[in-house]
Amino acid sequence: MVFNIHKSTPKELFQLAKQPEFTKQFLQLSDDDKKLCISKIKKYEDSLKNPPPAPRELLKNVSHALMDWAKDGFKMTDKELYDKRMEVCRACKYWNEMPGSPLIGRCSKCGCYGAKQKIRASKCPIGLW
After folding, report:
1. How far apart are CA 50 and CA 92, in angstroms?
2. Spans of all domains in the chain
3. Where are the alpha helices (DSSP H) in 1-129?
4. CA triple 119-123-127, angle to 5 deg
5. 44 Cβ contact partners less than 8 Å away, ≥ 6 residues apart
6. Is residue 121 classed as helix, strand or coil in its secondary structure?
7. How confident is the model over 76-88, as pLDDT tens digits?
8. Residues 110-122: pLDDT tens digits?
9. Most distant CA atoms of the chain, gap in Å
């Protein structure tokens, strides 16, 4: 078993950490890579504790987001604001990255997949942006 800490998803690392060979490779990592590895595994563990909203709640969240967007004249964010919002989301314990793609994820508080960050009138469900 060989893993690449930078390319492995949090879920993959979580599953690999259960393997006996993992410890040997982990101990050979640099201190920064050890921290990254632990951070990714913890993020995946947190995602298991924070499942996405139930379908009814998700529908309510989407409806409110669309109404706010319409009231704002369907305005979108510029790239700079979108990037700032995504940076905040990716660092949040409720953001769950999709396996194999760090650019796609889902918020387990509101259920969005990242499109909400592009809508100017949208707000983070826990007030981070």
Report:
1. 12
2. 10-49, 55-118
3. 10-16, 20-27, 31-49, 55-71, 79-91
4. 155
5. 9, 10, 11, 13, 14
6. coil
7. 999 999 999 999 9
8. 988 888 899 999 9
9. 56
